């Protein structure tokens, strides 16, 4: 039996069947999501060939974050920019790899604004660890300058998603109603629906964080972790640790299996490491639609008003009850 017969619904079909939920979009919303899927296929092909065509290494550049740019980072960034530009659906883009907002020329400009991390986890490329693309979609604002389209609270997103390039290529997206997962069939070149209406488990089974950062954590983190780990007793081990080091891969595993991801604010600098626009907002939007929650430690991620394109923040994301528990520890221990 073919994969199409097993799963039936392709990404394009799924998007089109939900088109009536966005009547104001006049077809551009569906087109945009489909084109993001196309970009994901192109990037997946390059990821599979990375070692063969010697794109593993560094370009010699640094991005606006001060990080070394990998060759595959640049390929993914350029691929997304070009596909989105040509889609006719996008007016403004912002990328973690670009200093400034990218304005699409008027003759190709559309109704939406997209912020993206073209290749999250790229430090893991040489080790063949799962990496991915994260994206956030907003409606274009009337008569606003380029960056203003993007300096908006995450709650104004109309869609968000990610693509993981690992043992299989999967695309997960939400339009604010459900979170649905599609897997790429290399034979047909189509994304097929494999997990519909994904939802967080109410109980945390997995903790995801880099415990070697313990000396730099604020005071609340260690007692909070003791509380979570204290759920393990002689009767059963109820919580385990899994940390991949690619945010999008950690997030996806936790969504599927029930986990809590933490990247606290650094106590030395008072700021987080993860990017609000390109990583935290889209994943927080997905988490909330899936019945979870996301906080920066002192409130809801989606309520944060960005002040710059490359703003950083702390992140606690997972089951509602344990995100709320973390916030209580922040209030009590600082």
List keywords for this structure.
eight-stranded mixed beta sheet; D-Maltodextrin-Binding Protein, domain 2; alpha+beta; 334 residues; 29% helix; Fructose-1,6-Bisphosphatase, Chain A, domain 1; 8 helices; globular
Short description:
By secondary structure, the protein is an alpha+beta fold. The chain is 29% helix and 25% strand. The radius of gyration is 19 Å and the shape is globular.
Total helical segments: 8
Which series of helices and strands comes N to C?
HHHEEHEEEEEEEEEHEHEEHEEEH
Oligomer: single chain
Q: Remind me, CATH topology of the largest domain?
A: Fructose-1,6-Bisphosphatase, Chain A, domain 1
Shape: globular
Total strands = 17
Percent strand: 15-25%
Rounded average pLDDT? 91
Topology:
Layout: H1 3-7, H2 11-17, H3 28-48, E1 58-62, E2 68-70, H4 71-86, E3 90-95, E4 102-103, E5 112-120, E6 131-139, E7 159-165, E8 169-174, E9 179-185, E10 190-195, E11 206-208, H5 221-229, E12 240-241, H6 247-257, E13 259-263, E14 274-275, H7 276-289, E15 292-295, E16 312-313, E17 315-319, H8 320-333
Parallel strand pairs: 3-5, 11-12, 11-13
Antiparallel strand pairs: 1-2, 3-4, 5-6, 6-7, 7-8, 8-9, 9-10, 13-17, 14-16, 15-17
């Amino acid at each position: 039996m073919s994969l199409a017969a097993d799963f039936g619904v392709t990404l394009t079909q799924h998007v089109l069947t939900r088109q009536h939920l966005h009547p104001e979009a006049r077809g551009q919303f569906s087109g945009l999501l489909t084109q993001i899927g196309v970009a994901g296929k192109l990037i997946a092909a390059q990821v599979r060939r990375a070692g063969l065509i010697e794109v593993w290494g560094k370009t010699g550049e640094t991005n606006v974050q001060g990080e070394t740019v990998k060759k595959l980072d640049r390929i993914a960034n350029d691929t997304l920019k070009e596909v989105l530009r040509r889609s006719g659906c996008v007016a403004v883009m912002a990328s973690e790899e670009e200093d400034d907002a990218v304005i699409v020329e008027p003759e190709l400009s559309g109704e939406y604004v997209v912020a993206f991390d073209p290749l999250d986890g790229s430090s893991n490329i040489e080790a063949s660890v799962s990496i991915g693309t994260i994206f956030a979609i907003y409606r274009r604002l009337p008569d606003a300058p380029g960056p203003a389209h993007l300096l908006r609270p995450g709650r104004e997103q109309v869609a968000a998603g990610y693509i993981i390039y690992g043992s299989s290529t999967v695309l997960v997206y939400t339009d604010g109603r459900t979170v649905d997962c599609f897997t790429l069939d290399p034979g047909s070149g189509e994304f097929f629906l494999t997990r519909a209406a994904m939802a967080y488990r109410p109980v945390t089974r997995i903790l995801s964080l880099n415990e070697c950062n313990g000396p730099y954590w604020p005071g609340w983190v260690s007692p909070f972790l003791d509380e979570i780990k204290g759920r393990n007793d002689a009767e059963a081990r109820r919580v385990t640790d899994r940390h991949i080091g690619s945010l999008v891969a950690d997030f996806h595993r936790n969504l599927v299996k029930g986990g809590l991801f933490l990247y606290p604010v650094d106590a030395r600098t008072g700021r987080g490491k993860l990017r609000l626009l390109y990583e935290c907002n889209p994943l927080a939007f997905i988490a909330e639609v899936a019945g979870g929650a996301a906080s920066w430690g002192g409130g809801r991620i989606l309520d944060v008003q960005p002040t710059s394109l490359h703003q950083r923040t702390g992140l606690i994301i997972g089951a509602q009850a344990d995100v709320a528990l973390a916030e209580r520890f922040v209030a009590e221990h600082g």
